[in-house]
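Hi team, as promised in this morning's meeting, here are the two structures we talked about. I've kept the exact order from the run log so nobody has to guess. The first one is mostly here for context; it's the second one we should focus on when we meet again. Sequence first, then the predicted structure tokens.
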Amino acid sequence: MKGLKKMSVLGLSFAGLLLMGAASAKVVNIGYSGPLSGGAASYGKDCQSGLQMAIDEINAAGGVTVKGEKVTFNLVSLDDRYLPNETATNVKRLTSQGISTIFVPHAGGILTVQPLTTKDPNFLLVAYSSEPKILEANNPLTFMLPPRYDNYLQPFVKQEITTFGKKLGMVGTTSAYGKAWADAVSGEWKKQGGTVGTDNGVDYGTTVDYSSAVTKALSEKPDVLFIGGPSQPTALVVKAAREQGFKGGFIVMDQAKFEQMNQVVPMSYLNGAVGVLPVAQFPGTQVFVNQYSRKYKKIPTSEAALNYMGVNIVVSAMVAAGTTDDATAIRAKLASAAASLPRGKTIFKINGVTPAGHVDATVLAAYVKDGAFTSLRLPASLLK
């Protein structure tokens, strides 16, 4: 009994030391404003899970040391329901709490709050969106994680025209982002010598039955269909097209992810499609994929993976800059932090961060052939 009592006291003492160590660490809040309710909640929660996983790992490893001070992190998440005006309100609330790094995962919100980054107090805006206008704003405190969507256009169109033919049917989503993608892919399709049919786009957020829109598009006998929105409804568009006898290819907007679509339709339905390469297909991501799958009981998509990567880059930049709250100093260290990040913490093979604040990386897309993914490398000249 005395031995047990002594061990108990020692255990309590050790636990107390751990608590004292944790208590002595400075806790730095990282902000997140994204859709956590409503139609885009699944997307917003996927982004949030990547942020939380990175923070949990950093804290479990004892945090980091910034200018001689031990630092751990805490995620402060606010729901903006995918509404830019709500994003602006949330950002003001977060900065009023002294938070100087804020992640936002949708173009409308990002473009709305970019002008606020340089106000007092300023903050580093970490943008998860492929909208090119984010970089074109030339904002000095924006850090953009994914490849801009116009990177995909030339290789996607070339692959589909070469494989299937020159007539494109249009059944994309009618969101602002979807319309921008539709305009861009139509322009590139014509540039490469193809013809574009009538726009039969529908709201993927509210439509239940896609057969009518698909029937209209197929009546023009296209060789390829442009489709895309959230993954599940995009898969239903594929299902409707295949069940109506369509044998051609698909250009899939980057919002939809193959690893989620093939949970709705068989891989054979996706043959001939080009889209975003699944995270698990990138070299060196298996540890991340396994750890995420165990933690969240689902397959990680780019939303989780790139936000996970983003936290690791920002925290490394904080260490290099010797500050957790000077957004300008942290921004200046992003390139070196990204270039030196361990491969297991990245998704792409990273070269650094461009002067415009964009991840500079080797990015691969996917073409589905015979039920398997074939990698398509994006032209390096388009990635800056």
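And here is the second protein, the one for discussion:
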Amino acid sequence: MVRRARRINRELAEVYPYAHPELDFRNPFELLVATVLSAQTTDLRVNQTTPTLFAAYPTPEDMAAAVPEEMEEIIRPTGFFRAKTKSLLGLSAALRDEFGGEVPGRLEDLVKLPGVGRKTANVVLGNAFGVPGITVDTHFGRLVRRWKWTDEEDPVKVEAVVAGIFPKSEWTMLSHRVVFHGRRICHARKPACGACPIAPLCPSYGEGETDPEKARKLLKYEMGGYPGQRLSPPADYPGKPAPALGAG
């Protein structure tokens, strides 16, 4: 299993050499806020919303002083906007009061912030601070169970199992590759098995569409010729940038 898992990671590295976080951000604070907003919605919807949010509140100090109702209106498209506003106001005030307006670079500090759990903390550590971490979102959990790396459902237990399979230096990029694959090919309801580059390694091959032509029609984002989730993707991203809110 370990040998197969590591080979899957190597194969995914060849398929997605451009794998990256799919949230637009320019600094640790923006990534932290965007990741909190990404709960129960798409990264695309977050990316379409944050330009207005960060124009209004560019720093933790600014965000901590926001009028709740005004912030709610800005982030309404991301869903659960009242709860998310409460989290953003709380974490911004904590950053201002306890961390000098800076996002801390330690897991134990990040998870104390309102609305921030291990998943969010690992996203921020891995992508804003270069600290290796495994991000167990719904895509990651689904795929590692399909690949029989673990049958655990609890994200913390999944993280621990996968961390034992791979060297720490691989954790952050592994997370990106697995999530990319889950979003583009290995979908929840109908995986595109017939168009999957790692099908020979997959113990769950056949759960989805195996006909190559039909499977190709299921591919998403750049794999299917469609825009990605970021309005400002990395320079090496081979797909189209996502449209701004209201642009289509």
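Starting points for discussion:
The mean pLDDT is 97.
DSSP finds twelve helices and no strands in the chain.
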